[in-house]
Amino acid sequence: MKRFALTAAGFASAAIAGASVADVTVNYDTGMVYGGDGVSFDLSGYTGTMTGMTVVANFYNAASSSSWASDMLVAVSNGTSGVSAGGYNMGFGFTDLGGFSWSYEFGSYSSYKSASFDMTGNSGSLYVVNGWTGTTNFAAWSGSVTLHGLTAVPAPGALALLGLAGLVGRRRR
Prior knowledge:
- The chain is an alpha+beta fold.
- It has two helices and nine strands.
- The protein has helices at residues 2-19, 156-172, and strands spanning 24-29, 38-42, 46-61, 72-77, 82-86, 95-96, 107-118, 125-130, 139-152.
- Residues 1-19 have low confidence and may be disordered.
């Protein structure tokens, strides 16, 4: 029975480790933002090499002559460098993955950008911004950004609890 308890704990930790390898999808809603404004998300719980990003956007333009859907700027940073896509006249100084071929029309858009970007270091961020700084009108984007190839870093306590469960199970037998 002792061997079974330790084996079960080993299988459970392998299952958690296996489940942590997946693409990371972040849902966003910028709300109504002026040029240069947006939202950011903490990516400190993820590591690995980002192989690309899929951006899905629902665009609403508060004034028909202000921002276009393609003005949306999406950037990923590892704390020291980064990659970005989109934006009209704004950037973060990161490696440019190219613009979005979206129009000024209200609606839903989707785009994939290929990348090879190291997210090792666990201090990353995702930014979704109105990338046209010349606008004085509001625009809004909502949707999702999927970062392909990243791995969730398990919390140190998760594996410790599995080990403790194995020891407790062993002791009870």
